[in-house]
């Protein structure tokens, strides 16, 4: 079938342009080296619903598994590990509090597929269908877990729409949907009028409806996961950053500035974009900063004016794609249009949040002219973990094969992070899991070129994609 630009091509293009630019002598922002850890406050709208704080680690411990990171991956891994092996001594260590990172800052969408397989057959149709089926099953499992906790988190899985802006893209999507449906993926191609009726905006030339997927309140889902984890007997320690890791048959972790020690037979790296700060995957996972905003609750007249009657979440086909969710209390959550990388895998945000908010505000007004004049109530930054080829990674590494990981979600982590917790538990138990038959498991993360090529190439690639989106 035809090809289109994809998230896979981003870092590959960055590598090529970075090498050329470095050879040409383009200047660097500052000295070479890995930037240190940074844990900025979570000032997202979702953070208003954060769970009660977990106490810091105040004793030395010996455990079976220490999970590092209190986002969706860490919480899911801890829960699946405890459920798979009752009596297993599992603890979770979070540098701040659960949900502090990307899990409590994203745009609220829950999607099937991986980023690399999103509306693109990356390798072959059989793999495409397998990944779709496994991620759909992962969403069903997530929904069952949430229902069992009794914690309402606005999880709605009634489908979503992927939109495209140009009629020139129609042949690609016609061909893709035909192939996907032949494989048994239940998609529906929408023309421009149908897309406008579903979403209340006329800016798109068409779209693809997928009945599997939807939206969720980011931090309420953290609350549900934390409830399940504590109920499974796992101890959660907040404000307990891991300051150092000594590898061995027994892993030794220095926690809280080195004041406490945890000895663990195995660890789980559940830190995604922050992982390089622990000394792992520095060359395989790159932190990328993206922004999200939310409106105040819309009035009845504003809701009538936008006519988003289906309330289906959607994201578009641009390189710096926009994604929108209409929440149960009638707020619009919008993100996208920008992505930023800071030299040395810097996880501290150094951009102009106000300027990006103005850009997103203008896009929202363009999509929904009836909302012109409405202002955002919250705007915040989040952190993605990006891989060189756009594919996620889950597996086990280390000389003693006792370092488990799930990371590099490339913007589609809500569903994948929960699923990867299940995969990590299977790997720990030495059991089979169907995900391990896909190309996105094990040693599947290729290296990203080092600095300065990484920074230079990324800046050029981002600017090129901005230009392409504008034309």
The helix count comes to 10
Indicate the CATH class.
Alpha Beta
Strand count: 18
Mean pLDDT: 93
Give the helix/strand layout.
Elements: H1 8-24, E1 61-68, H2 72-84, E2 90-93, E3 109-110, H3 125-149, E4 160-164, H4 170-182, E5 188-191, H5 192-199, E6 206-210, E7 214-215, H6 218-231, E8 235-237, E9 242-246, E10 251-255, E11 260-269, E12 286-294, H7 300-306, E13 314-315, E14 322-326, E15 332-336, H8 353-367, E16 378-386, E17 393-397, E18 403-407, H9 413-429, H10 453-470
Parallel strand pairs: 1-2, 1-11, 2-8, 4-13, 11-18
Antiparallel strand pairs: 3-7, 4-6, 5-6, 9-10, 10-11, 12-15, 12-16, 13-14, 14-15, 17-18
Helix pairs in contact: 1-10, 2-6, 2-9, 3-6, 3-9
């Amino acid at each position: 079938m035809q090809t289109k630009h994809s998230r896979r091509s981003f870092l590959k293009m960055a590598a090529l342009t970075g090498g050329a630019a470095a050879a040409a002598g383009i200047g660097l922002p500052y000295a070479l080296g890995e930037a240190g850890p940074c844990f900025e406050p979570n000032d997202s709208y979702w953070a208003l619903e954060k769970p009660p704080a977990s106490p810091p680690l105040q004793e030395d411990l010996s455990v079976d598994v220490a999970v590092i990171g209190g986002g969706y991956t860490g919480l899911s891994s801890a829960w699946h590990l405890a459920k798979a092996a009752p009596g297993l001594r599992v603890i979770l260590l979070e540098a701040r509090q659960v949900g502090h990172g990307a899990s409590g800052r994203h745009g609220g969408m829950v999607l099937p597929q991986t980023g690399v397989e999103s509306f693109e057959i990356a390798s072959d149709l059989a793999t495409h269908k397998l990944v779709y089926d496994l991620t759909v099953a992962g969403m069903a499992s997530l929904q069952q877990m949430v229902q069992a906790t009794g914690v309402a988190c606005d999880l709605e899985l009634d489908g979503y729409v992927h939109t495209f802006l140009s009629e020139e893209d129609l042949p690609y999507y016609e061909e893709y949907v035909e192939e996907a449906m032949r494989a048994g993926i239940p998609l529906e191609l929408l023309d421009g009028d149908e897309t406008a009726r579903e979403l209340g905006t006329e800016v798109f030339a068409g779209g693809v409806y997928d009945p599997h997927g939807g939206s969720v309140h980011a931090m309420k889902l953290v609350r549900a996961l934390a409830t399940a984890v504590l109920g499974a007997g796992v101890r959660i320690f907040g404000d307990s950053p891991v300051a150092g890791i000594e590898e061995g048959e027994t892993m030794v972790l220095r926690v809280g500035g080195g004041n406490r020690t945890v000895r663990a037979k195995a660890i789980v790296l559940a830190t995604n974009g922050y992982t390089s700060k622990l000394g792992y995957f520095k060359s395989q996972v790159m932190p990328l900063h993206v922004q999200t905003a939310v409106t105040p609750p819309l009035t009845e007249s504003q809701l009538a004016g936008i006519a988003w009657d289906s309330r289906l979440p959607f994201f578009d086909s641009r390189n710096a794609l926009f994604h929108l969710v209409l929440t149960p209390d009638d707020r619009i959550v919008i993100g996208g249009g920008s992505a930023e990388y800071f030299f040395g895998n810097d996880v501290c945000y150094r951009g102009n949040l106000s300027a990006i908010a103005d850009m997103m505000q203008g896009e929202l007004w363009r999509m929904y002219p009836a909302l012109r004049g409405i202002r955002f109530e919250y705007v915040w930054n989040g952190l993605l973990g990006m891989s060189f080829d756009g594919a996620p990674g889950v597996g086990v590494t280390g000389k003693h094969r006792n370092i488990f990981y799930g990371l590099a979600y490339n913007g589609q982590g809500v569903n994948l992070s929960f699923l990867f917790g299940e995969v990590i538990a299977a790997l720990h138990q030495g059991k089979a899991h169907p995900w391990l038959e896909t190309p996105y498991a094990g040693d599947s993360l290729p290296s990203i070129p080092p600095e300065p090529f990484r920074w230079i190439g990324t800046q050029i690639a981002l600017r090129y994609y901005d230009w392409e989106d504008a034309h």
